[in-house]
Amino acid sequence: MTGPEKPSPLGFAQEVEKLMKLPQHLCKQRGICCRIATFKGSLNVDDIRKLSLMGDEPGAEMARDFLSVFEPYATTEEVVEMAPEFVDRVKQTTQLGGGNPDNVSFFKCRFVLADGRCGVHEDRPVGCRTYPFPHKDTIYHPGCGFEQQGKANWQRIEEIIQTLEAMSNAD
Ligand code: SF4
């Protein structure tokens, strides 16, 4: 008689790959995430520019991708007027992470159309195709259709990471 099959690292890797892709039908197509965005939750525009110049360093390609479509708002006050709850979420998360909440840059996409659709849909960058990425640092706009599923998927990914660490420590 054999016991239950031991979960394999490959099986977990395949599960994580699926969890990282949120179903596109969850999008409510409001276009708000294209009009008001942050990079990695809370970075400042100068930090993003520096990161974009760092060749093959982790995150550099993503920063270049981001700056190819997004431009910073001149002031945070104009963003607060449009999306006060989102700004609060970003600032709270920044503070919890030890950052300066008053130093966060907010961005708008150069290509979002007045009705919220993407003006370069066929050629949109990778970051837009994979957005939102389930991760602890992802800050969803209030009412975002991806929020519940994205958080649940990230919780499962964290469980998998812990299981893999326990398996590796037991070897
Ligand atoms: S390129 Fe398109 S999908 Fe990407 S942020 Fe701009 S409008 Fe949105």
Tell me what the structure shows:
With 171 residues, the protein is mostly helical. The chain has one domain (25-170). Helix content is 49%, strand content 4%. It has eight helices and two strands. A two-stranded antiparallel ribbon has the order 1-2. The model has no long low-confidence stretch (mean pLDDT 91). The structure holds iron/sulfur cluster.
Detail the topology: elements first, then pairings.
Elements: H1 9-20, H2 32-35, H3 45-52, H4 60-69, E1 70-72, H5 76-82, H6 84-96, E2 107-109, H7 126-130, H8 147-170
Antiparallel strand pairs: 1-2
Helix pairs in contact: 1-8, 3-4, 5-6
The chain binds iron/sulfur cluster (SF4).
Iron/sulfur cluster binds at residues 34, 69, 109, 111-112, 118, 120, 124, 128.
Short description:
By secondary structure, this protein is mainly alpha-helical. It contains eight helices and two strands, in the order H-H-H-H-E-H-H-E-H-H.
User: Oligomerization state of this entry?
Assistant: single chain
Number of helical segments with 4 or more residues? 8
Percent range for β-strand residues: under 5%
Q: What is Rg?
A: 18 Å
Give structural attributes.
single chain, 171 residues, mainly alpha, two-stranded antiparallel sheet, 8 helices, 2 strands, globular, binds iron/sulfur cluster
